[in-house]
Amino acid sequence: MNTASLNDLTRARAEDRPVLLTGGAVVTMDPAVPDLPSGDVLLIGSQIAAVGADLRSDPAHAADAAAALVIDTRGAIVSPGFVDTHRHSWQAQLRRSIPDVTDLGAYVMSTLAGTAPAYTPHDMYIGTRLAALSALDAGITTLLDFSHNSRTSAHSDAAIHALLDTGIRGVHASMAPHFGAWDGQWPADVERLMSRFHGANDGLVTLRLAALSTDEIAGDHIAYGPALAAVARDLGVWTSIDAVFGTASSAAILRWAQQGILDPTLTLIHATGLAPEAWTAMGDAGVTVSLAPTSDAQIGLETAVPAVDEALAAGIRPGLSIDVEVALANDMFTQMRTLHAIQRMRAVNSGYGSAAPTRSRISTRDVLDFATLQGAKANGLGDVTGSLTPGKQADLLIVRADDINNMPLNDAVGTLVLGADARNIDTVLVAGRPRKWAGSLVGEDLGTLHREVAASRDDILRRVAAR
Ligand SMILES: [Zn+2]
């Protein structure tokens, strides 16, 4: 496939030379920019400059295309990177530690009450860095890190530094810890974090507030309401709200609407088992929604069914998210396939032997839209990333379609959603910078990473046992 080297690309970027990806199947996920069975994507600096069937013979782009470093993408799919709208990245060195978790309470007690208080700032850095690198490896170019173990300012700084050091497009969503000793610095400290880190790394890292929907899990200090809404408004940031499910959250949503604090700056996460009136209020307010299909189903959050029908009926196209690696897979392929299978099962089952209205049998393109563009919108980055749109940042993937599990290529969207996995991701660019190349993360020594991760995990467990 590709004949340009990483050195070629690095040099081209240093010299401000355009880069032309040519010959691949192009999936744009922008309704206004048609997909191409074989086409070109022109990059200039950090941006996508043009998408077209043959840019070298397009007068508007011929000069740049002729001067460009050419990357041959024949045999591959060129697509936007995936967007994760909610992951608790700090937990990554505990990944799959509770694979058979029985319910939400068991997760809360084992992880949030059990291990979280034993984290040092260094552990926050190691876990968040591991999560971000794994995300990049699996083609996730934008990660919203719902960082809810901010025991001290140093914990927050460490988590943000991890995002900065990996070169991912990161949204640090800051929340206080649920349980255990902490400095009480949140939410006041978010102002300092904003002035220090918002827009850092050439705009790659942004910040927002994080909260829970009610006081049911860990008390009032982290429940969204007028006080936190005022903090967010003063700072000019968006807010991601986790644990949105069931009767109590439905009541909270209606209360927020009355208080005037249910608005487009909110992302509501999970949204399972909500009352119809709550969905109507959400649609009217223009909030974004993050579905966590594996987490809803496996941990059993309220109805445990991802709320696709409810969201679409309210006029909301949701983003997708990974949530907790302690019990779940960490790639977007799993989320897309899980959601696709569950929803089609639900749609067929709802009509089976009954006269009930048939639910929406969503398509592979719907699911890919949720995993890219809609996620970008939920992360407040809809104008920046999530689709191959000229003027947006060059956050994109080159996915090998001639690997054993994908050959021969018949349908690019179907292949991305139903066929591909992380091993097929040859190249990952974030703002045009190579973060994965020829199937390997750029500039990362996995041996060192493994030693650091294992040492942090061991230290955490030792501190937990000593308590
Ligand atoms: Zn969560």
From TrEMBL:
Stored SUPFAM superfamilies: Composite domain of metallo-dependent hydrolases, Metallo-dependent hydrolases
Domain Amidohydrolase-related: from-to ranges: 77-433
NCBIfam families, per the entry: PRK08204.1
Pfam family, one: Amidohydro_1
InterPro entries per record: Amidohydro-rel, Metal-dep_hydrolase_composite, Metal_Hydrolase, MTA/SAH_deaminase
Name this protein carries in UniProt: Melamine deaminase
Coiled-coil parts of chain: none
